[in-house]
């Protein structure tokens, strides 16, 4: 019986060799997921790199400097970009997760490290959805940027987000 099975495998391999290692599932394969995350980051950066060719306003893209990449503009401003890939099985981002795991607090820290300069902008790029409803992450997105679509409830959102941005060691009590 074993000789017949080997003969069958040998016959199949004549058409296209498949090493036996590829018939055994790996015990752990987080590398594939990690590579997918980096691929998404590269795709987002590539979109900006194309702008180098088509828009005079974009001067340079520097990868892995302060953030996943930094975009330098002709007007002297820069944009720190954090890219967060989220697997399809994960829920949409809520405000708390965006601040902690989604990198908003980290972006804020990088902006503070740049002395909070007004010509330093921040951008979070993600492939995942945002929670809806009152106080949802989609509301936070609509409140951000130079021309916000939502301007009511900002104080409540600031209070909700501030707890993640301000670390206890940065508070001074007198």
Q: Topology, please?
A:
Elements: H1 2-15, H2 30-54, E1 58-65, E2 67-73, E3 78-84, H3 95-100, H4 104-113, E4 120-126, H5 137-143, H6 154-165
Largest sheet: 4 strands, mixed
Question: Kindly, what is the distance between the CA atoms of the first and last residues, rounded to a whole number of angstroms?
Answer: 84 Å
Give the overall silhouette. Answer: globular
H and E string = HHEEEHHEHH
Order the strands across the largest sheet as they lie in space: 1-2-3-4
Helical proportion? Answer: 40-55%
Number of strands: 4
Taking pLDDT < 50 over at least 5 consecutive residues as the criterion, the unreliable ranges are 1-5, 169-174
Number of helices: 6
Structurally, the number of domains stands at 1
Structural class: alpha+beta
Radius of gyration, whole Å: 23 Å
Overall pLDDT level: 83
Q: Which features does this protein show?
A:
single chain; 174 residues; alpha+beta; four-stranded mixed β-sheet; 4 strands; disordered N terminus; disordered C terminus
């Amino acid at each position: 019986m074993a000789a017949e099975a080997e003969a069958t495998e040998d016959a199949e391999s004549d058409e296209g060799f498949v090493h036996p290692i590829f018939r055994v599932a790996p015990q752990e394969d987080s590398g594939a997921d990690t590579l997918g995350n980096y691929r998404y980051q590269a795709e987002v950066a590539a979109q900006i790199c194309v702008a180098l060719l088509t828009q005079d306003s974009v001067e340079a893209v520097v990868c892995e400097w302060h953030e996943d990449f930094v975009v330098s503009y002709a007007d002297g401003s820069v944009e720190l970009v954090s890219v967060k890939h989220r697997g399809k099985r994960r829920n949409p981002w809520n405000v708390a997760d965006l601040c902690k795991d989604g990198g908003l607090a980290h972006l804020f820290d990088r902006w503070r490290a740049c002395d909070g300069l007004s010509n330093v902008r921040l951008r979070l790029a993600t492939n995942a959805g945002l929670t809806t409803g009152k106080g949802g992450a989609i509301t936070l997105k609509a409140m951000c940027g130079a021309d916000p679509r939502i301007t009511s409830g900002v104080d409540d959102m600031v209070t909700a987000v501030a707890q993640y941005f301000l670390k206890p060691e940065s508070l001074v009590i007198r």
